[in-house]
Amino acid sequence: MDWAGWATFGFVATVLLTGIMVTAQLAGWSRMDIPMMLGTMFVADPDRARLAGFVVHLGVGQLFALLYLSAFALLDTATWWLGALFGLLHGLAALTILVRLIVGIHPRMASDRAGPELGTILEPPGLLGLNYGRHTPLFALLAHVAYGAVLGGFLTPR
After folding, report:
1. I want to staple 94 with a disulfide (CB 3.0 to 4.6 A). Which of 8, 98, 102, 113 is the partner?
2. Residue whose C-alpha is closest to residue 41's, from 101, 115, 81
3. How far, in whole angstroms, is CA 141 from its chain's centroid?
4. Prediction pTM value
5. Residue 40, number of CB atoms within 10 A of its CB
6. What angle do helix axes 80-93 and 46-75 make, rounded to 10 degrees?
C-alpha cells in the first residue's frame, strides 16, 4: 500500500475539505463549523474547541483516507473521478448518517427530538445539515468530492 501517499495526501485532502467548509462558513454560505462541532465534544471553550476539533478532524480524515486507499488497492485503480465518486458517497453518508449520529453522543449539542438543555451550546444539524444553512449540503458535498478527488488523483494502489 501507498503509506507515504496516505500520510501526505490524507492530510492534504482533509485540510482542503476543512478549508472549503470554513470558507463557506466565513462567506456566510453555511454555519456548519466542523472543528467546533467536534471540539466541543471535548472542550467547552469555543476557541479551544476549534483547535481540538481541527486536530480530531485531521485524525478522522486520515482514517477515512485509509479506507479510500484500501478501496483503491482492492480495485487496483485510483483515479480522480473514482475518488470524487467515493467522496460524493462519503459526503452523502456524512450528511445523512454521521451528523445525525453525533447528536446522540455530543454533550453540548441540542437534539431535534428533545430540544435544548442547560449545557447545550450548539443547535442540532437537522436533515442534511440544513439547520446550519440552506447551502450547507452543497458545500459539504463539494468538500467531500474534492477530498476524494485529491486522494484518487494522488494515491497509488499497490
Report:
1. 98
2. 101
3. 10
4. 0.89
5. 24
6. 130
What is residue 127's DSSP assignment?
Answer: G
DSSP of 131-158: GG-TTHHHHHHHHHHHHHHHHHHH----
Phi then psi dihedrals of residue 126, to 5 deg: 75, 180
Answer for the pair 144, 57: CB distance below 8 angstroms, yes or no. no
pLDDT of the chain, 158 residues: tens digit per residue: 788 989 999 999 999 999 999 999 999 999 988 888 888 888 888 889 889 999 999 999 999 999 999 999 999 999 999 999 999 999 999 999 988 887 777 767 766 665 555 555 677 777 898 888 899 999 999 999 999 999 999 999 87
